[in-house]
Design goal:
The protein is of the alpha/beta class and 241 residues long. It has one domain (8-145, 162-230): Rossmann fold (3-Layer(aba) Sandwich), CATH 3.40.50.720. It has helices at residues 17-28, 40-44, 60-74, 97-127, 150-170, 207-220, and strands at 8-12, 32-37, 51-54, 79-82, 133-137, 176-180, 224-225. A 7-stranded parallel sheet has the order 3-2-1-4-5-6-7, with helices on both faces. Helix 6 links the parallel strand 6 and strand 7. It is globular, with a radius of gyration of 18 Å.
Amino acid sequence: MGELRGSTILVVGASGGLGHQISRLLAEAGATLVLSGRDPDALAALGLPGTRVTADLTDPTAISDLVASAEAVTGHLDGVVVAAGVVAFGPAESLRPETVQTLVAVNTVAPILLMQAAHAALARSASAGRAPFLLTLSGVVSESPTANLAAYSASKAGMAAFMTAAGREVRRAGIRLIDARPGHTETALSTHPIAGTAPALPAGLDPAAVAARIVRAILTGERDLPSAAFVPAAPAAPAPA
């Protein structure tokens, strides 16, 4: 994209750990933000400039209305960041149907519907000479499905597969789809699962560093951010004496 000043970007899940960090960096880069989440108080507590819109991602009509509201702020929509998601832990055989349905509704269906709802607005942005994008966060589990996270892994992998295929289709409209797959990141997501209890997890990635890598990808025109893109660089070897 190269330049964010003057662009309008919708951040879905802006009150989450990564959503907040990404929103902060986008605001610092000069983007006009539309910040969306479920809790208006959490959105207000972000302390970031922008329009705040609450939305229920399990409601297709709410998703369409959210995109329309975002475009109406400035008359154009140039980017969408989908940072919303839910997680559940536990053995595959004990997953309750409603848990699976919620995981798929939020992690798979909602990003698909957001892409569909935003397509026309993003295509208009491209026609106006801007470089529109939609970014999703499927995470490392879409590359390496994880035991005791089977349904969560499946919900994220399904979304990643859709975005990979759809990205090939929407290129001709000038729209860039980006999927980011960072490893476990130190956000609060694992502390409030919709089912089960998180096991002891190793130290995760720094959310600020992950957000910075994602925003760099937006700025530099990248289309894919595999888990390897988030591995911290090894320290340089000391120069010989």
